[in-house]
Design brief:
Radius of gyration: 18 Å
Bound molecules: zinc ion
Structural class: mainly alpha
Region (Disordered): 131-153
Protein name: Reverse transcriptase zinc-binding domain-containing protein
Number of domains: 1
Largest sheet: none
Strand content: under 5%
Helix content: 55-70%
Order of helices and strands: HHHHHHHHH
Length: 153
């Protein structure tokens, strides 16, 4: 549980993003903006007949509905709350740090809601992500050095 600490330095959040598999990184920003293949957005861009959530039929399928409220996903949501050690109240809280972001991806994976668009959303172990991020960081530093060398010429 100490993985979820609101005081986590933002650097670690950065590392999580850098080390994420491409499909997970690709969904993060659109998810925050609501530009994801949920009914509300699909309806807006003419790709769905109705904005209503097909899982519960009770409300427009927005990002908050999908993540926070849809009764069809109560089970994976309570698993997420349990792992978070708190009820899931807000999207902002989920997006704030690496630990809660992992739980959010686990939720997305469990609901299988984006599977048809993005494929399997299971996340590799945190350790693998950190290692990938570190390697990526080294690569970027390498590039910087190369650039400096080029500039000096
Ligand atoms: Zn619903």
């Amino acid at each position: 549980m100490n993985e979820i600490d609101p005081k986590l330095p933002s650097k670690r959040y950065g590392i999580l993003i850098v080390g994420l598999p491409r499909r997970h990184a690709a969904i993060l920003f659109p998810l925050r903006m609501g530009f994801v293949p949920l009914r509300k957005h699909l309806h807006k861009i003419g790709r769905a007949d109705t904005p209503t959530c097909q899982a519960c039929g009770e409300a427009p399928e927005t990002v908050p509905h999908y993540i926070l409220y849809c009764p069809a996903f109560n089970h994976p949501r309570s698993a997420m709350s349990f792992e978070l050690g708190d009820n899931v109240h807000s999207l902002t809280a989920l997006f704030t740090n690496a630990g809660s972001l992992r739980l959010l991806f686990r939720y997305i994976h469990r609901t299988r809601r984006f599977e048809e668009h993005f494929g399997c959303m299971s996340l590799p172990p945190a350790k693998e992500i950190m290692e990938k991020a570190k390697k990526q960081g080294l690569k970027d530093k390498g590039k910087e050095k190369q650039q400096k060398r080029n500039e000096q010429r």
